[in-house]
Amino acid sequence: ALVRDVVEKTQDPYDWKVEEYKYYNEHPAEFAPPATEPATTQPTNAASQPAVQPFEAVAESIHDKLVHQRATALMKRIQERLVGALGNDYALFARSPDATTRPANPFGAAYEEFAYLQKLADVIQKEFGVRPVIDQVAEFKGESDLAAIAQIGGATYKNVNFAQYAVGAAAAFQPENQKASAETLTLFKPSGVMRDAFQNLYVFRLTDARAAHAPANAGEARERIVADLLRKQSFDDAKSRAKALMQGAGAAGANLESAAKAAGLSVRSVGPVHAGAAIPEYPLDPAARAAFIDQAMDLLHLAAKNDSSHPMALIELPTVGKLAVVRLDTVEPVWNANTQLPIELQITQRWRDELMQVLQTQWFDFEAVKTRTGYEELSRQQRRAPQAPPPPMF
């Protein structure tokens, strides 16, 4: 459950309303009416203007503020409980890596096991009504792959993003004189608390860390090679079926629904599609979403080139093992009557900047000026010696 939802349920609407009235009466200065007229030296009738805004006008903002304050306090308590438990149990683990000789923790699972985190999440839910989301990455990933992980990939610790932090702080990649640093992440040591743009909190543990290397032999890489070959074969088979589907749908995609039904597939509408924004009804990780949007935008070029209102294309997303036969449905501007003029001004300014860049790099380039004007540099002998200044008048 979201922390805010849990806080909302701590009181019924009547009790919340009592709290809101109490806050309203105790903080009148926060609810002064907004200034709507310029200041004047003329005397005003103070009795004709309310000292504060009516309660009904500010009740919603008061409620949001009260919930936010309590949600922040609850998040702090959860963070302290979570970080405290991880820190204490890691200290026991570091002193006694052998689980058979290590003092038992209160969660009934060895600290280094994934089950430990699940048990810890159960306890947090029982104590605070909020269950932390627990997940694991059961394969080696490089920095770019870590950055593409949904949610935590956008979190930062001390202004360092998750991927750079995880790789840069790993003890396996630290010089010997820095491995004892408090910021170094040894295996299973809980990380510092990270935050994303929505103030969600994240903590992770490294279960293994190795530098990239070539496999010592084919046997070491066999499992990965077999998996990659099967994945490629599956992707190629799906691509062949997708191309057949496009042929059955016709050039303009008029028969897409019937062709998909015949192939045992379904058609759904997604969008609108905007650069850099999530795609409604079609969730993808950030890297795959960017690839999808880039290829989807090519439909606009196809529509203009082929004079077609509903061009089709095959979008390939091999990193997530997906293919999509897409058909352009409608195109709508991102502006309206109120925003059209500012956007036109922005476009005009962008064109002007691009033109200035061309002028600076091509028209005013030294070689271009030299060619255009027929300029020839004089040799030292051809240059006139500077004339002496005239003598003084007195």
Break the fold down into its secondary structure elements and pairings.
Elements: H1 3-8, H2 13-26, H3 55-95, H4 114-128, H5 143-147, E1 156-157, E2 160-161, H6 162-168, E3 194-195, E4 201-202, H7 218-249, H8 256-262, H9 286-306, E5 312-317, E6 322-327, H10 340-363, H11 366-373
Antiparallel strand pairs: 1-2, 3-4, 5-6
Helix pairs in contact: 2-3, 7-8
What can you tell me about this protein's structure?
The structure is a single chain. It contains 11 helices and 6 strands. The protein has helices at residues 3-8, 13-26, 55-95, 114-128, 143-147, 162-168, 218-249, 256-262, 286-306, 340-363, 366-373; strands at 156-157, 160-161, 194-195, 201-202, 312-317, 322-327. The chain is mainly α and 394 residues long. The termini are far apart. The model has no long low-confidence stretch (mean pLDDT 83). Strands 1-2 form a two-stranded antiparallel sheet. Strands 3-4 form a two-stranded antiparallel sheet. A two-stranded antiparallel ribbon has the order 5-6.
